[in-house]
Amino acid sequence: MGRKGNLESQLDRIIHLVIKEDYVTGSFVQRKLGISYLGAMNVLRKLEEFGYIEKGDDFTKRRVKKHNYIQ
């Protein structure tokens, strides 16, 4: 995927990855998707907007809201 993947496919991929985590950070998203830190912040904002993670600033870890996932 890398840098050429679109935001929707990146969101799909990271959602599957964060299900297993209690917290997620920008650097975690950056490493897993192979994107820039700014791109990772955009992904975190979308995850926050959709209610998958708690609100926070760009420099803190965010708690994953496990109840939003279908088990």
Give the gist of this structure:
With 71 residues, the protein is mostly helical. The chain has helices at 7-18, 26-33, 37-49, and strands spanning 23-24, 62-63. The chain is built from 3 helices and 2 strands; from the N terminus they run H-E-H-H-E.
Q: Which strands sit side by side, in order, in the main sheet?
A: 1-2
Distance between the termini: 26 Å
Whole-number mean pLDDT: 83
> Tell me about the biggest sheet?
2 strands, antiparallel
Task: Describe the structure in your own words.
It contains 3 helices and 2 strands. It starts with 6 loop residues before the first helix and ends in an 8-residue tail after the last strand. It has a two-stranded antiparallel sheet with strand order 1-2. The protein has helices at residues 7-18, 26-33, 37-49; strands at 23-24, 62-63. The chain has 71 residues and is mainly alpha-helical. The mean pLDDT is 83. 46% of the residues lie in helices and 6% in strands. Helix 2 (26-33) crosses helix 3.
Which features would summarize this protein structure in a list?
71 residues; two-stranded antiparallel ribbon
Set out the fold topology.
Layout: H1 7-18, E1 23-24, H2 26-33, H3 37-49, E2 62-63
Antiparallel strand pairs: 1-2
